[in-house]
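User: Second chain of the day. Same drill as before.
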Amino acid sequence: MPAVAQRRLRQRAMELVRPWLWLGFVVVALVVAIFAESRAQPGGEAGLVTAAETTLTGALRAGDKSAARKLLSLQFTFADENGKVFTRKEFLSDLKSVAASDTPTDVKASVYGLVGMVTGSRNSARGNTVLFLDIWAKQKGTWHALTMQDVAVGTDDAQIAAVADPSPGGDGKEAAADGKPSECKNPCDTIPYRVRSPAEQDVITTLQEITKAAVAGNVDAWAKHVADDFVLYRTGHAPITKSAAVASIEGAKTSKVAASVSAIESMRLSVYGDGAAMIANYASPDKSRPPYRAASVWAKRNGQWQLVIEVETDLKG
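Assistant: Same format as last time:
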């Protein structure tokens, strides 16, 4: 075949192939973009919880009671930064007066078993910047909000040192002359709650062991029941991490500061698989701190329950 004919044949072949090459490049680019987008978005159940939270936030901002109602469990409650608690019916009756009106920031979603939690910051209906904990549960295959709780935390890191007992229901005060810790019948030995399952009993037993360990200043016993990423949020205090809590317990023991343990007045506990949600009202017998509502999430890891997060909002009413 003459050289000129060969060149024309090659040119014709390239003209036929070139569109397919460009199509291949476009397909590869689209696949890469989709993969990158999927990596940027939370996946699995955490992604579903995030989507449900976003939908609920939009419904609350729009005052859409019908859309909000579908996402709230029948047991739903909401506690604002002043500790005022709203039932599901009360919450839905006047959304705009109780729900936040802006888009939350620093939002993070996590799932433990069939319990999900979403944390972040938002402006409350009262116009205050609050940290929030929204707890979700997968009920009959669908994620529903169990509770929403706001807390106005502090920003002064020095406040961490003021907490001698960072366990649920604890605060610090000077020990008596004999240096003995305060009495802790409730919740150390007994809790006013009717246990409904072995799983609930395991969670409650873990709560009691955490409290006993903190009262005794036993850091090792306390730490094994608390997740490494644990954070405690309290009204007016800076967030307390696990390491800060350990340092506080050790410091209290060294300086002989006794734990003044608040007693549980009421509790609601829900266990879903390897996750649990607990809501409890505490009151201090010696009035060393205001009554407060504690919302917490628990996770079962390697057969052992651990406390993941706790939000304690003072009841100011």
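The mean pLDDT is 84.

User: Great, on to the next one.
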